[in-house]
Design goal:
Length: 159
């Protein structure tokens, strides 16, 4: 879906409007894009209070690079990352952020120098699930084989 530039008002991507301080989230229940997570090596999970069932990859990238800071209802977005040692983090960085681990680390070194804090890092899928379940507005990713409790919801990543 092509992006439309709107001077001073962010970028409109399908039903998504991105700005540096907010992401307006209108998840859709219907299949309105190509599912890129079906064969992926990760599952994206959110706190149950986060609305919707699908998320464009571009929005997911903006969230994890902390370029989108709020959900559509105004609540803070709280991304949580996996360890740089994990295979799921490598796959997520490649598929979603379109960067390798080293490039993402360099990005965060620059942001840290400018006073921005990267997402917290957890060392296992279980820790990510626990963080997302207990943190309103949280979003994370886990290995596809991870058993998900009722305290989190999976969202489908679409192009």
């Amino acid at each position: 879906m092509p992006a439309t530039e709107r001077p001073g008002r962010g970028t409109l991507v399908g039903p998504w409007r991105l700005t540096l301080c907010a992401v307006r989230v209108f998840f859709s229940s219907s299949a309105s894009g190509t599912d890129v997570s079906a064969a992926a090596a990760f599952r994206v999970i959110v706190h149950p209070d986060v609305k919707g069932s699908q998320m464009p990859r571009s929005v997911l990238s903006a969230i994890f690079l902390k370029q989108a800071l709020k959900w559509g209802d105004g609540r803070p977005v709280v991304p949580v990352d996996q360890s740089v040692q994990s295979a799921v983090r490598r796959q997520f960085s490649s598929d979603v952020l379109k960067q390798g681990i080293v490039q993402v680390q360099v990005y965060w070194q620059r942001k840290i120098a400018a006073g921005q804090v990267p997402p917290p890092v957890k060392t296992s899928d279980e820790e990510v699930v626990a963080f997302v379940a207990s943190t309103p507005g949280a979003i994370g990713y886990v290995s596809p084989s991870t058993t998900l409790p009722d305290t989190v919801r999976e969202v489908t990543v679409v192009d």
